[in-house]
Amino acid sequence: MPNKTGSAGLRTIAAGLALGVGLFGAAPSALAWEPSEDVQIVVHTKSTGSTYAYGAAVKAAIEDAGLMGQEIDLRSIQGAGGAKARQHVAQTNAGNPHVVQVLTPSQINNPILARSDVNRDSFRGIAINVVTPLLMVVHADSPYQSINDIVAAAKEKPGEVIQGGGAVGQVASLVGKLFADSQGVDITYTPFDDEGVLQLAGGHVDFILENPAQVKKFVDAGRMRIVGTSNKLSFAPDVPTFEEAGYDFPVLQQYRGLWTSADVPEEARSYYGDLLKKVSESDSFKEYVQTNDLTPVWISGAELEKMLNAEAKAYRDLSEELNLISK
């Protein structure tokens, strides 16, 4: 969980997530509404991304356990920091109970950065059921053996140490900025469509901040090394957490869940909440959680809406503090 946070709102969010599964009671009971046609799960990233992997794990769990009578179409709609996906769900399919979207922090914060009208207010949450750790990763042949080495290089060569990642405004970019500011160093952030993973594999950037689903195969193959993590890792227990390594800076939560357009009837969201709870309890999803060192949580209903409102405010405040948007 976070070492500390950039605002009171983010501290509240982190505290709620830290309490884990069952905090807000049992999943909603099944209601009369059920899908009458195929259901579309929209993802705003490429099929190689960790967000897509989450959607695929949800889809697989539903299909493996026979939890839904209709087919599931897992659809990747990329572009404009998730704006095309959000528009597809909240505008093109406003009120359509057969279209849901994978919910991540970037889908809260990117509209803030872009001053978009299709924002948090255009959606209602279903549930959040996992949080993923954030790893600091370097190339296997990198001269940087620790976080200390990266900081020392950034102090010696201001602006020459390069962090690769996704679009500015995603969690990794914000945490990278908070990390650099906490050390008083200048680190160059360069966005890539693949979140910088292939660029790191090719030795073109110095480090990335990513989650296990994106980098574990490269680590296992000996092509990348993890030098720090927000949470202890079962597959790499010797890697220190940022706090253990002596770095006290805000590490924002990376959660995964589902939401719908704001106009979708409440009974449909209750159905999907019940469905996602069953997914969380399925063997295949538990295997996905374990493989990727995720933390199971359960936040839904009114508590989730309260959290998302607080998160939108906290990210807006944080973006202003970091001069990413004007006040």
Describe this structure in words.
The protein is of the alpha/beta class and 327 residues long. The longest helix is centred in the C-terminal third of the chain and has 21 residues, at 301-321. The protein has 2 domains: 8-132 and 253-321, D-Maltodextrin-Binding Protein, domain 2 (3-Layer(aba) Sandwich), CATH 3.40.190; 135-229, Periplasmic binding protein-like II (D-Maltodextrin-Binding Protein, domain 2, 3-Layer(aba) Sandwich), CATH 3.40.190. Helices cover 39% and strands 19% of the residues. Strand 1 (39-43), helix 2 and strand 2 form a beta-alpha-beta unit. The two termini are 29 Å apart.
Brief summary of the model shown:
The protein is α/β, with parallel strands linked by helices. It has helices at 8-18, 50-65, 83-92, 106-114, 147-156, 171-183, 197-201, 212-220, 266-280, 283-291, 301-321; strands at 39-43, 72-76, 99-103, 123-132, 135-139, 162-165, 188-191, 207-210, 224-229, 254-261, 295-300. It is built from 11 helices and 11 strands.
Shape: globular
N→C terminal distance: 29 Å
| Low-confidence segments | 1-13, 18-31
CATH topology (level 3) name of the largest domain: D-Maltodextrin-Binding Protein, domain 2
CATH architecture of the largest domain: 3-Layer(aba) Sandwich
User: How would you name the CATH homologous superfamily of the largest domain?
Assistant: Bordetella uptake gene, domain 1
Strand order of the largest sheet: 2-1-3-10-4-11
Q: How many separate structural domains?
A: 2
Roughly how much helix do the residues carry, as a percent range?
25-40%
Query: Mean of residue pLDDT?
Result: 89
Oligomer: single chain
Helices and strands: which structural class?
alpha/beta
Order of helices and strands: HEHEHEHEEHEHEHEHEEHHEH
What is the CATH top level name of the largest domain? Alpha Beta
Q: Please tell me how large the radius of gyration is.
A: 19 Å
Number of beta-strand segments = 11
Percentage beta strand: 15-25%
